[in-house]
Design a protein that fits this description.
alpha+beta, 2 domains, globular
Length: about 190
């Protein structure tokens, strides 16, 4: 004949009755449910954050120009230049938001401080694999200088659309630049289509 001990009996603690265990189970379930609801509410609040301030003025016109889901970061890291001005252009299969340091730059290279792009059916091409928002595989291109210099860039695909962000960051450390570009991509994907 085998005798089984109740949990805790070997440690000198009184064993719980089945009735005590049943009473605690619903409380644990409600606690878990409350935790999940709070997490969902926090995620929703984060998703509905407005885009970064310089991007807000171009959004209405861009929505009229392209049917693509427009992903915009909720913040921009410190960029070179005293201010950031955005212009946008869209087509049925793409869009580009150009960021410049002067409102009357007219796309001259001297004013360029970044761009956010989308291309339907585009292909990932940057060398370094990165994970965006914990679930999306992307690619990163560090800043590079040869005949000309190019700022760091990050790209990822969602629903058949290639999204790219390239920004002239104030930070000069490669590790900081990578971190800031990942934050831009994370906030753009979490924000969802605008």
């Amino acid at each position: 004949m085998t005798v089984t001990q109740a949990p805790g009996a070997a440690l000198g603690r009184p064993a719980r009755t089945t009735q005590q265990t049943r009473r605690r189970a619903p409380i644990a379930r409600y606690g878990l449910l409350a935790t999940l609801l709070l997490a969902a509410a926090a995620a929703h609040a984060q998703e509905t954050s407005p885009p970064a301030t310089p991007l807000v003025p171009v959004l209405p016109e861009l929505k009229r120009q392209t049917p693509l889901p427009i992903l915009l970061p909720t913040h921009l890291p410190p960029l070179l230049g005293p201010a950031v001005y955005a212009t946008a252009q869209g087509t049925p299969t793409s869009y580009t938001i150009r960021l410049e340091s002067d409102p009357d730059c007219h796309q001259a290279d001297v004013c360029f401080i970044g761009e956010l792009k989308a291309q339907k059916g585009g292909t990932l091409s940057y060398p370094d694999p990165v994970q965006i928002d914990k679930v999306i595989q992307g690619r990163y291109q560090p800043a590079a200088c040869g005949n000309t210099c190019s700022p760091p860039a990050i790209e990822w695909k969602m629903n058949g659309v290639l999204y790219t962000a390239q920004l002239t960051l104030r930070s000069r450390k490669p590790r900081d630049q990578r971190s800031e570009m990942l934050q831009v991509a994370d906030s753009a994907t979490r924000g969802g289509a605008r």
